[in-house]
Design brief:
The complex is a heterodimer of chains A (108) and B (121).
Chain A lengths: L3 E4 L2 E4 L5 E7 L7 E6 L6 E5 L3 E2 L7 E6 L2 E6 L8 E7 L7 E2 L3 E5 L1
Chain B lengths: L1 E5 L3 E2 L5 E8 L9 E7 L5 E8 L3 E4 L7 E6 L4 E6 L8 E8 L10 E2 L3 E5 L2
Parallel strand pairs in B: 2-11
Antiparallel strand pairs in B: 1-3, 3-8, 4-5, 4-9, 5-6, 7-8, 9-10, 9-11
The chains are: A mainly beta (108), B mainly beta (121).
Chain lengths: 108, 121
């Protein structure tokens, strides 16, 4: 099975800061990597699919990059409404979908 | 498309957990979609449980495969999850979700609000 790791597990940042989260797969998953945002008490919300494609309606301050085993998720300018936990998810190992452990982002 | 989970919030140990996801805005027998269940243990991350494709192709997380089944009810435009022999470790928020599987790309673009299921006597 493919294992996903994320770092950091949590971070604190100020409004306007650039925030970067990394996700690493235990083996090559090409670009089969998605990113979700989950706010407390809510379902996850798809932000990025196939490593770098922005889902329709998602603000452009969110972006993703990477391929193979190493991926990066960036918020270019953190907004108060971005406070949430962010998860990566691989689908190279179909039909088994695997999520990363999550990165909690809060305000400094 | 909107998804809404329903089912008991409390299940006794060793019993069967049964949940239903009502689909509105699209047909549950629409070809090409993977209708899925995902759970989240309290304060923890997300775990994919199962998916059903084209109403009859089913896929299960190997860690749960011996206890789980997923099915579709076209007459009610719903899909369902059954998890047998539950223990406290199955206490979680259960989400239903849709994977449109466009052009071989897979992601969950629509989720239900989630329903908390507690396993306790």
């Amino acid at each position: 099975d493919i294992q996903m790791t994320q770092s950091p597990s949590s971070l604190s940042a100020s409004v306007g800061d650039r925030v970067t989260i990394t996700c690493q797969a235990s083996q090559d998953i090409s670009n089969y990597l998605n990113w979700y945002q989950q706010k407390p008490g809510e379902a996850p919300n798809l932000l990025i699919y196939d490593a770098s494609n922005l889902e329709a309606g998602v603000p452009s301050r969110f972006s993703g990059s990477g391929s193979g085993t190493d991926f990066t998720f960036t918020i270019s300018s953190l907004q108060p409404e971005d406070i949430a936990t962010y998860y990566c998810q691989q689908y190279d190992d179909l039909p088994l979908f695997t999520f990363g452990p999550g990165t909690k982002v809060d305000l400094k | 498309v909107q998804l809404q989970e329903s089912g008991p919030g409390l299940v006794k140990p060793s019993q069967t957990l049964s949940l239903t996801c009502n689909v509105s805005g699209d047909s549950v027998i629409r070809g090409g979609y993977y209708w899925s269940w995902i759970r989240q243990h309290p304060g923890k991350g997300l775990e994919w449980i199962a998916s059903i494709y084209n109403s009859d192709s089913t896929y299960y997380n190997p860690s749960l495969k011996s206890r789980v089944s997923i099915s579709v009810d076209p007459s009610k435009n719903q899909f369902s999850l059954k998890l047998t022999s539950v223990t406290a470790a199955d206490t979680a928020v259960y989400f239903c979700a849709k994977d449109p599987a466009y052009g071989g790309t897979h992601y969950f673009d629509c989720w239900g609000q989630g329903t908390l299921v507690t396993v306790s006597s």
